[in-house]
């Protein structure tokens, strides 16, 4: 991962939840990471894979009995259907897993998955020990090689894995599923250029692209190529103007304060500097203009504060594995009796349609 890379870690599932989400992050970021997921991007029999995905889906429809693994079956089918885009998006969508396993987990991801399950369903009943699946794997039609397969962390361990991958590499975490909780990982925004520049980017793009629709991946790559100079300038300015944002916040600023200041700077300083990007995107002469913009859609909404910290020992054990510094930051919040909502590495995009 390059230091000047403008990237995010996708949180909610193992592949983009919709083409609209993919389009939006494709215009903001250089790359988006899907930690621990393996998907081939060459030598794929796409027709046979689609037929196999349809076969499995029909089985699920006909046999609505196996609810225990339903979530992972749905994710597996979705990942199989995403294969047709894999070779097109291989330089943008980065799947960090490896073939021959059922998802590649960061150290501590299993323990954090149990924390997530408790956040969703509450503490287990006395005498009951939860045993959620940690991953899935599926061979694909065609070449009988280990590479010709898909795998990934399970529906519950993938977001846990993403939190740790995000913290480990210092890449902002991006979620587009408001109903799914995000465990709190302490990370101050002050003097963190990646966090601040991402805030500015998400606030600015709402103004530049107020009614973004969705486009097919091939069209998205064409747009990224047509706008490569403007988008490169956009990302560079986000980093430059993050200094302005850093100057007006303190180490004790709440994320609500950070977001308010980011919005102000986006409206007063950043947007005037991005007229070329706005003008090019709104150029009706571009072949993709009508497909990209749709006045009937809602403006993407950014919510900075959506993570939850739980004050119990189990999550402290997870933080010990992530790193002693993180554990100490967590302990400090507990000692101050501050049960915080939000994390400097977490962002929520809320879109009208999925």
Structure write-up:
The chain has 13 helices and 8 strands. Helix 1 (19-28) links the parallel strand 1 and strand 2 (31-34). It has a 6-stranded mixed β-sheet with strand order 3-2-1-6-8-7, sandwiched between helices. Strands 4-5 form a two-stranded antiparallel sheet. It is of the alpha/beta class and 354 residues long. It has 2 domains: 7-175, no CATH class; 193-296, no CATH class. Helices cover 47% and strands 9% of the residues. It starts with 6 loop residues before the first strand and ends with a strand. Helix 2 (46-62) packs antiparallel against helix 3 (70-86), helix 4 (109-121) packs antiparallel against helix 12 (313-322) and helix 12 (313-322) runs antiparallel to helix 13.
Helix content: 40-55%
* Cα-to-Cα separation, first versus last residue: 29 Å
Count of spatially separate domains: 2
Shape assignment: globular
Strand count, sense and closure of the main sheet? 6 strands, mixed
Beta-strand fraction estimate: 5-15%
Structural class: alpha/beta
Roughly how many Å is the radius of gyration?
21 Å
Number of strands: 8
Helical stretch tally: 13
Listing every helix as H and every strand as E from the N terminus to the C terminus, the arrangement reads EHEHHEHEEHEHHHHHHEHHE
Strand line-up in the sheet with most strands: 3-2-1-6-8-7
> Could you report the average pLDDT, rounded to the nearest whole number?
75
Low-confidence stretches: 303-315, 336-354
Question: How is this fold's topology laid out?
Answer:
Blueprint: E1 7-10, H1 19-28, E2 31-34, H2 46-62, H3 70-86, E3 93-95, H4 109-121, E4 135-139, E5 149-153, H5 157-169, E6 173-175, H6 193-208, H7 217-226, H8 228-247, H9 255-270, H10 275-281, H11 289-292, E7 301-303, H12 313-322, H13 324-335, E8 346-350
Parallel strand pairs: 1-2, 1-6, 2-3, 6-8
Antiparallel strand pairs: 4-5, 7-8
Helix pairs in contact: 1-7, 2-3, 4-5, 4-12, 6-8, 6-9, 8-9, 12-13
């Amino acid at each position: 991962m390059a230091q000047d890379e403008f990237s995010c870690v996708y949180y909610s599932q193992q592949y983009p939840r919709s083409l609209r989400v993919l389009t939006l992050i494709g215009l903001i970021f250089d790359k988006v990471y899907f930690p621990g997921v393996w998907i081939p991007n060459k030598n794929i029999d796409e027709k046979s894979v689609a037929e196999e995905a349809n076969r499995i889906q029909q089985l699920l429809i006909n046999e609505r009995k196996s609810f225990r693994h339903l979530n992972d079956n749905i994710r597996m089918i979705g990942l199989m259907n995403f294969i047709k885009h894999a070779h097109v998006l291989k330089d943008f969508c980065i799947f960090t897993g490896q073939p021959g396993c059922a998802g590649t987990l960061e150290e501590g991801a299993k323990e954090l998955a149990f924390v997530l399950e408790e956040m969703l369903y509450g503490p287990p009943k006395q005498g009951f020990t939860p045993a959620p699946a940690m991953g899935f794997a599926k061979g694909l039609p065609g070449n009988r090689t280990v590479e010709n397969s898909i795998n990934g962390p399970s529906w519950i361990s993938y977001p846990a894995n993403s939190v740790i991958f995000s913290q480990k590499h210092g890449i902002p975490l991006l979620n587009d599923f408001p109903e799914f909780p995000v465990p709190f990982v302490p990370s101050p925004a002050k003097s963190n250029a990646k966090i601040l520049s991402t805030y500015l980017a998400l606030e600015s793009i709402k103004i530049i692209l107020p009614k973004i629709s969705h486009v097919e991946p091939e069209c998205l790559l064409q747009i990224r190529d047509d706008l490569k100079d403007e988008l490169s300038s956009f990302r560079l300015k986000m980093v430059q103007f993050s200094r302005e944002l850093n100057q007006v916040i303190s180490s004790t600023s709440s994320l609500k304060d950070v977001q308010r200041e980011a919005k102000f700077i986006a409206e007063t300083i950043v947007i005037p500097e991005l007229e070329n990007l706005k003008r090019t995107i709104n150029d009706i002469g571009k072949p993709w203009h009508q497909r990209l913009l749709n006045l009937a859609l809602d403006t993407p909404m950014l919510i900075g504060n959506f993570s939850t910290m739980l004050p119990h020992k189990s999550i402290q054990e997870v933080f010990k594995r992530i790193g002693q510094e993180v554990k100490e930051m967590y302990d400090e919040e507990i000692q101050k009796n501050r049960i915080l909502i939000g994390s400097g590495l977490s962002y929520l995009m809320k879109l009208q349609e999925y």
